[in-house]
Amino acid sequence: MKKIGRLTLLLLGVVLITISCEDDFAEAGSDLVNNNNFNALLYDASQLEVATKPLVKMQSNSLNSYSLGFYTDQVYGNYSASILTQLRLQNPDPGFGAYPELDSVVLSIPYYSKPISQDETGTQYKLDSIYGNVPINLELYRSNYFLRSEDPENDYAPQAYYSNQRDLFESYLDAQPFDTIVNFQPSAAEVRFRKVNSRGEFDTIVASPRTRIKLPLQYFKELIFDKEGQPELLSNSNFQNFFRGLYIKPVNTLETPITALSLLNLRSEEAKISLYFNTSDVQDPSDEELQQKEYELYFGSNIVNVFNTEDQTIPTGNEIYLKGGQGSMATIDLFTDPAELETLRASEWLINEANLTFYVDENQISEDHNQPQRLFVYDIKNNKVLQDYTFDISANDNNPLKSRLIHLGRLDKDNNGKRFYKLKLTSYVSDIINKDSTNTRLGLTVSNNVNIFNPLKAEVEGEENIEEGSQIEVIPSPILLTPQSTVLYGPDAPEANRLKLNIYYTEPN
Fold first, then answer.
1. How far is CA 405 from CA 129, 271, 402, 451, 503, in A?
2. DSSP E strands: which ranges in 149-221?
């Protein structure tokens, strides 16, 4: 019985220790410094440098979403976003029957949305990544610029197109748009439309929010139906050389700057142009002989976002200026004093936590400013995320807003109501101090989805004198997909708001 009692106590102790360890693990990154198990000390005197880097151009043809419209920023000014895309045939060399008659042509592009409730009237949705609620016009042009998939001047690597090529692309447009969409404005209402089923009959489809706009019949009759059996429709490559691109350009009909920007899911199979037509094998068919059909044009593999940033400015100063779109990022250099770093490496500290806390400049960023909830940091030299990102146990693929909260903390407020972002770099700093890892430059950007890195080629200002191999070559793609911005205090700010590298450590016994 005594042995059983001791065994029970031992098992109970193991359980309690396990629970305690799990609690400590769950709390790591929140109140680790105050945990009595560590008794950590704070070192915050490390020297660091931060610099704002305006973005000159970014690769914008390898995105999963595309911006369209206008955006006005109280700090950075205004810009607009247009889209150039190839179209792709549903199937090459299509046949439309002996006597086809085009009935309607509909452009359909789904919005990003999520259902929030459901009742007898249907499903209610909330739109995501829609900024502003001002109606705008859209002009649709035929482009005569050929978008290549491979770059013959770069050993036939995948062709890169950039956000600053607007003037080039617009110089290849037809003189007049083939259609103008008036008062375009996204709606959160679910949509109902007809779709031809396999029996040639129309079914009523209920779908998530999307734009559905009728396009001119005669234009697409000449573009598609009149080319049946001709070389232009024999293959997608032939068609994309014949109709080289569709350019969608927003038009502000007001005299003042506006915000009316939409993030569109052009990579979805639901993004398309549908041609509805009737056909038969006889010239004057009866209702029974008439067949209802549908032919679709999808958005092609080459889609490019271009921006007009003529009215946008990136301020200069000691603050850190971060802006989405073709805006700005920042670079961070830690341990800029080599002697200090050698002293830290000789200390043999156990690094419990290391973080950078960025305070918002409340004088420039008001409470109603459309500020990003998340920032993103990455390794510039190696063009990859940090180890802290990879090992963050809070990763949530289904909810980016609540994902990787240990490493990339959300916008928060301290006890005095001051807004801040806390980014934890514990593994990164620990490896530099204790494993002699290379102290590389870090890149800092805004982000609308921290689950995505997807590095894209970029050119930024002020990199000319940076050592080769440490220059910025790529940026995370989400910066291109959000217009949001912020202004943060840097390492030269007053003490209460100063950016510091806070290192919490335990000294060796």
1. 21, 33, 6, 11, 19
2. 150-151, 157-158, 179-184, 191-196, 202-207, 210-215
Helix or strand or coil: residue 226? helix
Looking at the predicted structure, is the pLDDT value of residue 24 above 70?
A: no
Render 137-148 in DSSP notation, one character per residue. EEEEEEE-----
* Extents of the domains making up the chain: 33-55+313-506, 77-308
What the block records as the tokens of 141 is: 């042009």
What pLDDT is recorded for position 35? Answer: 45
Q: Angle CA(436)–CA(44)–CA(30) in degrees, nearest 5?
A: 90
CA-closest candidate to residue 191, choices 213, 169, 171, 172: 213
Residue 84 and residue 398: Cα distance in Å, rounded? 30
E strand or H helix at 8, and its extent? helix 2-27
Q: Are 314 and 54 in contact (CB under 8 A)?
A: yes
- 498, 320 in Cβ contact below 8 A? no
Q: Report the DSSP pairing between strands 101-110 and 291-308.
A: unpaired
Instruction: Name the band, by pLDDT with cuts 50, 70 and 90, for residue 4.
Output: very low
CB 220 within 8 A of CB 179: no
- pTM recorded for the entire structure: 0.89
Which residues have C-beta within 8 Å of that of residue 28, sequence separation ≥ 6? 353, 406
Rounded Cα–Cα distance for residues 493 and 496 (Å): 8
Rounded to a whole number of angstroms, the distance between the first and last alpha carbons of the chain is: 41
**Chain-centre distance of CA 491, in angstroms?**
28
Contact 355, 496 (CB under 8 A): no
Virtual torsion, Cα 82, 88, 89, 92, nearest 10 deg: 150
Q: Give the pLDDT of residue 203.
A: 87
Segments in 336-457 forming alpha helices (H): 338-347, 387-390, 426-434
- SS3 sequence of 257-309: CCCEEEEECCCCCCCEEEEEEEECCCCCCCCCCCEEEEEEEEEEEEEEEEEEC
The two tokens of residue 154 are: 């770069």
